[in-house]
TrEMBL record:
Pfam families: Epimerase. This is NAD-dependent epimerase/dehydratase domain-containing protein. The lineage of its organism: Eukaryota, Viridiplantae, Streptophyta, Embryophyta, Tracheophyta. One of its GO terms (molecular function) is oxidoreductase activity, acting on the CH-OH group of donors, NAD or NADP as acceptor. InterPro entries: Epimerase_deHydtase, NAD(P)-bd_dom_sf, NAD(P)_dehydrat-like.
Amino acid sequence: MGFVQSEARKKMEIEEMKCMLAACGGLNRRKDDEEFQGIRASSKQVVEFSDEEELVCVTSGVSYLGLAIVNRLMTRGYSVRIIVDNEEDKEKLRELETSGEMRTSKNGIIAVMAKLAEVESLVEAFQGCHGVFHTSAFTDPAGLSGYTKSMAEIEVRASENVMEACSRTPSVRNCVVTSSLLTCLWRDITTTPELPPVVNHESWSDESLCIRNKLWYAVGKLRAEKAAWKIAKERGLKLVTICPGLITGPEYFGKNPTATIAYLKGGQEMFRDGLLATVDVMNLADAHARVFEEMKRTAYGRYVCFDRVIQVEDEAERLAKEIGVPANKIASEDASNCGPPRFVLSNKKLCNLMSRTHRSCYDRS
């Protein structure tokens, strides 16, 4: 963001988005698809949808995860409003409309210009929406790897603004915030030697530990999630947070080097302790949709989401090759001599929810 892309780069990104949409099932249209409401881009437009079509909003909707969530919601019959904050993203969506990649028969998409730094802009964008998905896809504006302390501060402010806007918008009933598994697993064993062996939705990372080790991605996600919970409790807003492991999927690293490399800072320690987990973007998008729907019934609180735990060196090497990072970023040379993992990850709460809705889940209790 913040710099002009070449036409070649824009075209490449659009093609990558098309491939991702195909992978996420966006091209699995029914044979009777005949109508196309299409994507409409506007800075202030509020679109009316019929009562049968529940309207939801997705922030960072043109990000890798955002697009996966959008398509999952569309296949489940929702109408989706996507927040974009620059003309380039609007152009990408128009191209996807022209190519027919995001066409559906029963629901529509609209791209709305709004700034995550401006509460009033978000309030206007959320008008008429029953739910909001805040995916917060922040990247290094220079296109380099890394996630700085200042980016963590931006992440927190964006989370606060989204929650404030939700609380001010009468139509918004539920909010789903994408956090990170990193908000659960960085605990200080030197100050608390008797830590519980199971890391789950009740676990919280130690912020002071993260700051000492300059784990800014973990700090940003931790503070942003806590800020969201604070405002939700103060304003009586119904909120759930999803804490995913390292997101994987087709071409993910090429699209998200900042998030991938930032997540893997401390990767050797996570691998050694049995806490390095990944989740396929399509499974993660499905979890977002299912948790949102279950908020009308029993869904509450935090949900840990992963479908694979990296436990042996061969798996670590395969993951490194899959995401395009050096193997020693994940497993040190003496990893085989470290003994059994110290902790166990659990996503049982999410698995129980998914099983009630007849979905398979990688269950580790």
